Amino acid sequence: MNELTRIWFGVQLAFDTLRAHKLRAFLTVLGVIIGTSTVIGVGSILAGLDSSITGVLRSFGTDNLIITKWDSPMSFGPRSLEERMRKPLTLANALALKERSTNVESVSPYLFPDWGIHKAKYKGIDAFNIQIGGTDPGYISTGVEMREGRFFTDAENAHHLPVVVIGEDIGKAWFQTTSGVGKWVELDGHMFEVIGVMQRPTQSMPGQEDRRMMLPYFTMRKLFPTAKEHMIIVAAKPGHVPAAMDETRAVLRIERRVGLSKPDNFSISTAEQMVEQFRGVVAMIAIVMVVLSSIGLLVGGIGVMNIMLVSVTERTKEIGTRKALGARRRDIIIQFLTEAVVLTLVGGFLGIGLGWLISQAASLVFPDLPTAVPMWAVAAGVGVSVGVGLFFGIWPANKAARLDPVEALRHE
């Protein structure tokens, strides 16, 4: 009997054991199921979050600088007291950069709305999770491409006109086969005329929806008079990103009256730097996920070892018979290791299925999050399941292999 035949024989015995003790086998691998489903479910959510956030960040362009008042814009942890006490960036800061910088093509303030749920509507079709921003005509220099219509002008901005430029996916949802230009839509109870539809950023990921609604800066200020938080987007001249960054830092330190010996009370980042910061946060979350899932796998592994030791005790006479008929020590080890691996592998596949269901549930709860089960998570789930079976099956397999055939045959 060759090795493959022995392994196949062990697989058959393992499935016979599973069928004979279904509930016991399920409870044994419950920890493996939980651990594997955690890896799959959280991995799919992180993959979707990564594609969504990095797509938004990269849409700002490679030659653009993104300025915020936070030290690390992509941090999800608690901010320090010093950061929270900082003054927000202002329109005056953006105007100063525009006037004094020589290495930039344009400077655009970006005003965020007040926190809350914002809703837009056109003829009874609601749009939720919209990305509202107030900016000036220079924003189009950051790489915005128009699908139809145009961007707003300085005159429209100065006169606080109720015009809006919308993202591609909102335009498709609202207007479908007709042009959206000239149509009036409702935003938070106010009517705005659509003058243009933006094209989805080329850097966006598959499944990422373009739900932007861009208003002229002063129109946005009129709609949200208490809004304070700004971001400033600086479009550097091609090849002048480092010079533009130094120039921007110098102007803002003067504008914000930062002392010579004091650190910046703002941050200047490129889109790629912010993507790296975000992925650093995702990596930390992934590490926590692995630690939490490994607890479930440890519990599952101990359960597998326990049930295999019980199996060795229950099948002592069978082991003695096999050894008396010529089975070698390694044949017994292969048999019990195969059973342990099959047991945990079944748990792993059940965990993958449960993780996929978690991924689908997350996509229903958060429609804008393009969740997808990454292949690395599936491979990790299968690999870890096999590893747990091998590791925790070694002791029971060795115990079975060391049994004396005479004593084993006398076992009752």
Helix/strand layout:
Elements: H1 3-20, H2 22-28, H3 30-58, E1 64-68, H4 81-84, H5 91-100, E2 104-111, E3 120-122, E4 125-127, E5 131-135, E6 146-149, H6 154-158, E7 163-166, H7 168-175, E8 184-187, E9 190-198, E10 212-216, H8 217-223, E11 230-236, H9 241-255, E12 267-270, H10 271-314, H11 316-324, H12 329-365, H13 375-401, H14 405-410
Parallel strand pairs: 5-10, 7-9
Antiparallel strand pairs: 1-11, 1-12, 2-11, 3-4, 3-8, 6-9, 7-10, 8-9
Helix pairs in contact: 1-12, 2-10, 3-10, 3-12, 3-13, 5-9, 10-12, 10-13, 12-13
What does this protein structure show overall?
The protein has 412 residues and is α+β, with helices and mostly antiparallel strands. The protein folds into 2 domains: 3-53 and 279-410, no CATH class; 61-270, no CATH class. 55% of the residues lie in helices and 15% in strands. The protein has 14 helices and 12 strands. Strands 3, 4, 5, 6, 7, 8, 9 and 10 form an 8-stranded mixed beta sheet that branches. The protein has a 4-stranded antiparallel beta sheet with strand order 2-11-1-12. A hairpin with a 2-residue loop joins β3 and β4. α5 (91-100) packs across α9 (241-255) and α10 packs parallel to α13. The two termini are 30 Å apart. The model has no long low-confidence stretch (mean pLDDT 79).
Task: Please identify the structural class as seen in this structure.
Answer: alpha+beta
Low-confidence stretches: none
Q: What is the percent of helical residues? A: 40-55%
* Gross morphology: elongated
Number of helices: 14
Query: How much β-strand is present in the residues?
Result: 5-15%
Largest sheet: 8 strands, mixed
Count of spatially separate domains? 2
User: Rg from C-alpha positions?
Assistant: 31 Å
Mean pLDDT: 79
Secondary-structure element sequence?
HHHEHHEEEEEHEHEEEHEHEHHHHH
What is the terminal separation in angstroms? 30 Å
Number of separate strands? 12
